[in-house]
Amino acid sequence: MTTSSILPSDLNLSVCIDEYDDNLELSIKSTKTKSVNSMSILNINGKYISDLPDDTLIKIRKMLSGTSIHAIKLDLGFKSIPIESSIDAQLSVAKFFGANRVVIGINKSAIATDEVLKSYANQISDKCISLALMPIIELSADMIIESPDDMISFISRYKKIKLLYDPCRFMERANTQPYSKWWEKIKSHVDSIVVRDFKTGLGFFPAGYGDTKIFQTINEFMLAGGRNLIFKPSLGRRYGSVIGKNATFDLGYDIFNNWLRGIKNGD
Q1: Residue 261 pLDDT
Q2: Which residues, in sequence order, are CB contacts of 37 under 8 Å at separation 6+?
Q3: Which residues pair with 239 in a beta bridge?
Q4: Which of the residues 50, 65, 96, 216 has an alpha carbon 20 to 30 A from that of 17?
Q5: Confidence (pTM)
Q6: Which residues of the chain have pLDDT under 50?
Q7: Class of the 12-265 domain?
C-alpha cells in the first residue's frame, strides 16, 4: 500500500442513496448514520431520478432533508437531438434537490455526430454555469469519445466540464485495464471518483480486492488535491459469505474506512 498521502480534512465522501437497501427510505436513513459528507443520486433501482413522478420526487427530497447532494445523474444522453426545453426540465430536477453536480453520459448513438455533440456540450455547459452546477462526464467503455486524448481535447473547450472516473465501467464493459490507458492521462481533469472494484472474470468486489488499482488511484487523486469520492459498493452483489445489500455495503464501507485510517496513521 502506498502511504505517502495525508488524509485531507476536507475529503468529501458521498454515498449513493439506494446503495444500502432496496427500501429507499431505509437506505437513506441508514446511510445518514455513517461518516459521510453527502449523498449522490446516480440512479434509483436502475432508473434516472428524472423519470420518476413528481410526487415521488417530493417524497425523496423530504427523506433527504438536511443532506448535501454531491451529484445527480440525469437523462441528458443522445436519445434525440438535444432540445433546450428538455435540457431545462432535466436540470430543474438537479436544482430541486440542491445538487452541486450533474452527471452526464455521452454514449454512442446514431445521432451523435460531432456537430450534435458540440451543440449538446455548449448548451449543457452554458446552462450549468447559469445555474451554478458543475457538469461531470461519466467515463465508460461505450462513450462516443473513445480515447483519453480526444476526451481531454473535447472538455478543454469548456470552462466547467470535468470528469467522473469509475474504472469498473471500463472493466465491466470491455475488460479494459483503465489505469494506464485512461487514469494516467486524464487524472488532472477528474472531479470525482467512484469507489468500488472489479475483478476480471469474477465481477464486482469491495474496493482494494479487484484489478482496477482503485486505492492507488484514490491516493494519487488526493495527493493532487482531489477531494470528491462517491462510495458505491458493487450494487449489493455477493462477496464471499456476504449476502445482500446491507451486508455488502457494511463490508465495503469497513474495508474502505480501514484503508483511509491506515493512510491517516501512516501504516
Answers
A1: 82
A2: 11, 12, 13, 14, 68, 70
A3: 242
A4: 216
A5: 0.90
A6: 1-6, 236
A7: alpha beta
